[in-house]
Amino acid sequence: MLYWVVKAILGPILHIVFRPWAEGVENVPKQGPAILAGNHLSFADHFFGPLNLRRKVISLGKSDYFTGRGIKGYLSRLFFSGVGTVPIDRSGGKASEAALRTGLRVLGEGHLLGIYPEGTRSPDGRLYKGKTGVARLALESRAPVIPWAMIHTFEMMPPGQHLPKRGIRPGVRFGKPLDFSRYYGMEEDRLVLRAVTDEIMYALMELSEQEYVDKYAASAKVEMEREARAAGG
């Protein structure tokens, strides 16, 4: 209920102020489970990605968003609940398996599941290597995968910026569903998982027109921070 209240309040304001656009909305199923696999450029993606869809998009987010204290913690919980985020532990190991099971439960209930295969926001606007969790979700759930590419949200609200810039029109492109039925039953094969993930990332690269980097975004962030410290020292 909170999701639709937030969307009803923020939606008209975002449309008037930023004039967002969307292409390929017809590629998103009107009912039944589907995985929306997207690039992740900005905090603004949470707002503008689902804006033009008439279905609720449920995403998986860090449990930290829901455990804060005081007013800030309350507002964080309220916001992420309002944009359809389900808390998960992302510390790895058994936590990763629990996140997978949560995603499968969401899909099993017939919902749209939004997921960012890069695992974190791009540090520089480029598209980074995808993690194979999205492939496991696709093969185990047998739900269609819809590439979901955000456009211009990095320029509008890059990492570290708290308010979006005016004068930049954000957009989203929904690609045609990707069919991985040829791999069903092979979700334990690491080479298959990598092949499925790379196909998803290639579709995102074409939709978003981003430069692709064959490394994980988290690793790239660490390297950039190390270089920045070296330059400053």
Summarize the SSE layout with pairings.
Elements: H1 2-18, E1 21-23, E2 34-38, H2 45-48, E3 57-62, H3 70-82, E4 85-88, H4 94-108, E5 112-115, E6 127-128, H5 133-141, E7 145-151, H6 153-156, E8 171-174, H7 190-208, E9 212-213, H8 217-232
Parallel strand pairs: 1-8, 2-5, 2-7, 3-4, 3-5, 6-9
Antiparallel strand pairs: 7-8
Helix pairs in contact: 4-5, 5-7
Strand count? 9
Q: Classify the oligomer.
A: single chain
Shape type = globular
Distance between the termini: 51 Å
Instruction: Outline the biggest β-sheet.
Output: 7 strands, mixed
Number of domains: 1
CATH class label:
Alpha Beta
Rounded radius of gyration (Å): 17 Å
- Percentage of residues in strands: 15-25%
Mean pLDDT: 88
Query: Numbering strands along the chain, what is their spatial order in the largest sheet?
Result: 1-8-7-2-5-3-4
Please work out how many helical segments DSSP would assign: 8
Helix-strand topology string: HEEHEHEHEEHEHEHEH
Which percent range fits the helix content? 40-55%
Spans where pLDDT lies below 50 across 5 or more residues? none
CATH topology: Glycerol-3-phosphate (1)-acyltransferase
**Structural class label:** alpha/beta
CATH architecture: 3-Layer(aba) Sandwich
